[in-house]
């Protein structure tokens, strides 16, 4: 009961609860989803860096 009350107060405070994995398969899925999110962020950073370097190179050749 205390856990539910705590969760409710956190949700009302704007905190989204993070569900815990129940089975090894669910835990593996959560790990893979987290890895996928990290890789997507890294890819986005690399795209932005490449665009920045390309625009800098274009300015130098003019």
Automatic annotation (TrEMBL):
Region (Disordered): 1-26
InterPro entries reported for this sequence: Homeodomain-like_sf (IPR009057)
Name of the protein described by the UniProt record: Transposase
Lineage: Bacteria, Pseudomonadati, Pseudomonadota, Gammaproteobacteria, Oceanospirillales
């Amino acid at each position: 009961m205390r856990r539910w009350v705590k969760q409710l107060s956190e949700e009302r405070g704007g905190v989204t609860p993070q569900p815990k994995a129940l089975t090894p398969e669910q835990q593996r899925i959560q790990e893979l989803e987290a890895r996928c999110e990290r890789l997507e962020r890294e890819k986005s950073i690399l795209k932005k860096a490449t665009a920045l370097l390309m625009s800098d190179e274009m300015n130098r050749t003019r």
